[in-house]
Amino acid sequence: MAANAEIRRAADRAVTTTPWLQSRHSFSFGDHYDPRNTHHGLLLVNNDDIVEPGTGFETHAHRDMEIVTWVLRGELTHRDSAGNHGVIYPGLAQRMSAGSGILHSEKNQSATDAVHFVQMWVIPEVAGIAPGYQQREIGDEALAGELVPVASGMPGHDAVIGLHNRQAALHATRLKPGDAVPLPRAPFVHVFAARGHVALEEIGELHEGDAVRFADSDGRRVTAVEPAELLVWEMHAALGG
């Protein structure tokens, strides 16, 4: 394995389990604190959540955080104290900027089907901005076999939605067996196998829930072994850097 890459296996993640939620944490979160695992680059949270039908997160507060939600299966309903309301489903990108402070809830309003989603947090470059919300559909065709900028604050990125950080971008792709894409070249890259099975050039195989953390990513290729969906963070700075 390349010295600048670290594989983090799905089974090694901390898990929060309640009667209505199963949440797997790539980094320290809530009651699960590990001082050796607090972030990678600018990414503080990568939670892989399954919420049961008719349940969800009641109204709660956030501040000074860019929160991106990506649904893999089902639908998630968002409401916040700024008056924003949206239903997030597979192929729709959503970002909430907590800024100076916001309250929101996230509910699975289906009576029969669970919702499975990944929620990711990065810090904004400037604290205390006005809270904001953005969602936009991407579409299956755009995601097929290509690494698509989903959310970005980086100059020159034609991303679907924006981020209030010029050093960070989230890419997504859906790959069929044999499809291959190059990873971004950046000081920090986080690759999360949200679904399926892929092979990472000179590094190894990733199965659902596995991740790789790169320092000084050199653009090596990732190839689908089985149908797969990847979430890839490209970051050109780190916390405190």
Automatic annotation (TrEMBL):
SUPFAM superfamilies: RmlC-like cupins. CDD domains: cupin_Yhhw_N. Binds 1 Fe cation per subunit. Keywords: Dioxygenase, Iron, Metal-binding, Oxidoreductase. The keyword Iron applies. Residues 12-122 form the Pirin N-terminal domain. Its cofactor is Fe cation. Fe cation binds at H60, H62, H104, E106. One of its GO terms (molecular function) is metal ion binding. PANTHER family: QUERCETIN 2,3-DIOXYGENASE (PTHR43212:SF3). Belongs to the pirin family. This is Quercetin 2,3-dioxygenase.
